[in-house]
Specification:
Layout lengths: L4 E3 L15 E5 L5 E5 L9 E4 H8 L10 E2 L4 H12 L9 E15 L9 H4 L7 E10 L5 H13 L7 H12 L17 E4 L2 E5 L4 E3 L2
Parallel strand pairs: 1-7
Antiparallel strand pairs: 2-3, 4-5, 4-6, 6-7, 6-8, 8-9, 9-10
Helix pairs in contact: 4-5
Zinc ion binds next to helix 2.
């Protein structure tokens, strides 16, 4: 059996360039203060939403300026952001929250080896089975457990229509952006025997659940 993992490509994983966009506020003379750009390398790119823009979108505004936006942050300022968010007053009309975090998801379409009697969607995942793997990066709601992300990948690659499922639609678009159309892996719709790896956990699709095969 061919154990080689074939890398699909090109992956759309982006290492966003740039420095932290936060600013330090430091005291200046005469009781004033100055803002100094952090300048540290950004390591986190949370997507921030706020209640005012959410309200305006609900009222029909569709412009880019009303959409959630990515903020480049270093680790230290990311932690500070979490503290700031936790301390917000729930009635503050300008309160913000993290609507999404970039997540790297690797999808492995398992290749059957019919000569040796192995059919992935019948027999399920097996260690060492050859796969066509594609890596994508998508902005997903924070704190999604890996199996929920796997559910979204399943939906994204199986549902004929993703209207009303924006996260699955993002995943489908990211997969399509890699150029994968189902040829290299033998199929496009995630099936029994295929895997989804996220946050270091590799989940194999079974008939009624996901199995941790990390
Ligand atoms: Zn910073």
């Amino acid at each position: 059996m061919n154990n080689k993992i074939i890398e699909g490509g090109p992956p759309v994983v982006e290492t966003a360039p740039g420095d932290c966009e936060y600013e330090y506020v430091v005291p200046d003379v005469n009781d004033s203060s100055v803002e100094i750009a952090c300048g540290e390398p950004a390591t986190r790119w949370p997507v921030l939403d706020d209640s005012r823009n959410a309200h305006l979108r609900a009222a029909g505004k569709t412009g880019d300026e009303f959409q959630p936006s990515k903020l480049a942050l270093c680790d230290e300022h990311y932690k500070q952001l979490l503290v700031d968010i936790a301390e917000q007053d729930g009635s503050d009309p300008y309160r913000v929250w993290i609507a999404a975090e970039p997540k790297v998801v690797e999808i492995g379409w398992t290749l059957s080896d019919r000569e040796n009697g192995y059919v992935s969607y019948m027999d399920g995942w097996r260690a060492g089975a050859a796969q066509h793997a594609v890596s994508i990066e998508v902005d997903l709601p924070p704190d999604l457990p890996p199996y929920k992300v796997a559910d979204l990948v399943f939906l994204a690659t199986n549902a004929p229509d993703l209207e009303g499922h924006p996260d699955a639609a993002k995943i489908l678009a990211a997969v399509q952006a890699t150029g994968y159309r189902g040829v290299e892996g033998g199929h496009f719709s995630l099936s029994v025997g295929d895997t989804v790896t996220v946050d270091g956990m590799r989940l194999a699709c079974e008939d009624v659940r996901w199995k941790d095969v990390s």
